[in-house]
Specification:
Largest sheet: 7 strands, mixed
Order of helices and strands: EEEHEHEHEHEEEEHEH
CATH superfamily of the largest domain: Spore Coat Polysaccharide Biosynthesis Protein SpsA, Chain A
Structural class: alpha/beta
Distance between the termini: 34 Å
Strand content: 15-25%
Shape: globular
Helix content: 25-40%
Number of strands: 11
Number of helices: 6
Radius of gyration: 19 Å
CATH topology of the largest domain: Spore Coat Polysaccharide Biosynthesis Protein SpsA, Chain A
Strand order of the largest sheet: 5-4-1-6-10-7-11
């Protein structure tokens, strides 16, 4: 079984400029995901894909085994992530050979544990599902306290429950996709443009490891939690 890790990191960021190589707890943000992949010890390659030479240089300095220059059309604000992962996979396979499983790690999720990666991968192999996504229990429920406008402009629950729900705890459980880890059988990665398919499995992570950096406030909060966890251990 050949497994590769991909880490996709564009050079630009509107919410937090230069965030992928910005220092977080003494290391560039991208270095945390590279470290997670290396410490997991299941990967034949740990590849970083970027349109930025500066990002690729930092990635090499912190242990990425392969760096892949991403075409500009796969690095725009409107570009989807799956094509970038596919491109990175194909480029790495030219060196290490065809892989069986691809694990993508989000740069902006440094609070994950190495064990999260291993368990998400184990879920894929134990269930033989096509892919695994990660998520945490939702704060708000479409069955209880999320609303939307219908076609007539009237407010309605986003998702109507089968029975009356008077407490959020009584509503069906829903999850926020945290984007931290995606695990694919290779044929599933190249066979569907969606990350959620009928046979997709979810690996549940706690909220404390699910925060994603998209704003300056996110960055400050994640760094605070990261340092607090480091100090407690």
């Amino acid at each position: 079984m050949k497994i590769i890790a991909t880490i996709c990191a564009r050079g630009g960021s509107k919410g937090v400029p230069g965030k992928n190589i910005r220092q977080l707890a003494g290391l560039p943000l991208i270095a945390h995901s590279i470290r997670h992949a290396l410490e997991c010890k299941i990967f034949a390659a740990v590849a970083v894909s970027s349109d930025s030479e500066e990002v690729l240089s930092v990635a090499s300095a912190y242990g990425a085994t392969h760096v892949v220059t991403r075409p500009h059309e796969l690095a725009s604000d409107n570009a989807a992530k799956i094509p970038a992962i596919r491109h990175c996979t194909v480029q790495v396979e030219e060196i290490v050979g065809i892989c069986d499983v691809v694990v993508d790690l989000a740069v902006t999720s440094p609070l994950r544990d190495v064990d999260d990666i291993q368990q998400a991968y184990d879920l894929l192999t134990n269930t033989r599902c096509p892919n695994v996504i990660t998520g945490c229990l939702s704060h708000r429920s479409p069955y209880f306290n999320m609303v939307e406008f219908d076609t007539h402009g009237n407010l309605t629950l986003a998702k109507k429950p089968d029975r009356d729900v008077h407490r959020r705890q009584d509503a069906p459980r829903t999850f926020d996709m945290n984007g931290s880890i995606y695990v694919w059988q290779r044929e599933a990665l190249f066979g569907s443009d969606s990350v959620v398919n009928p046979a997709t499995r979810l690996y549940e992570m706690p909220e404390s490891r699910s925060l994603d950096i998209d704003t300056e406030l996110d960055f400050e909060l994640v760094e605070y939690l990261f340092l607090r966890r480091a100090n407690s251990s």
